[in-house]
Write a structure and sequence with these properties.
By secondary structure, the chain is mainly alpha-helical. It has a single domain (9-77), classed as Orthogonal Bundle (Arc Repressor Mutant, subunit A), CATH 1.10.10. The protein is 48% helix and 11% strand. Strand 2 and strand 3 (52-55) form a beta hairpin. Helix 1 packs across helix 2. The longest helix is centred in the first third of the chain and has 12 residues, at 9-20. The termini are far apart.
């Protein structure tokens, strides 16, 4: 039985964009702000001191489950500051 919280399509897209932003982070006040806040409450992204959302290790794991691994980015994603 699946025991993890369901991610809406918009939140899965936002999680993917957070991964693509790598160490730079996803800025606030964009159209996906509600999803970023939802993902933050779930622990998949974290609002950094720089005011941007950064994907967390649990977010990387959930991305791999829901969306799939991005092999070329995996090495860079492991260097993400959280």
């Amino acid at each position: 039985m699946w025991d993890e919280p369901y991610l809406e399509t918009c939140c899965r897209s936002t999680l993917h964009r957070a991964l693509l932003c790598e160490g730079i982070g996803r800025p606030q006040n964009l159209r996906d702000q509600p999803c970023l806040e939802r993902l933050s409450a779930m622990g998949f992204v974290k609002l950094g001191a720089d005011g941007r959302f950064h994907i967390t290790p649990s977010g990387l794991s959930r991305h791999d489950q829901e969306i799939g691994q991005l092999k070329p980015m995996r090495a860079r994603a492991s260097q993400i500051r959280v």
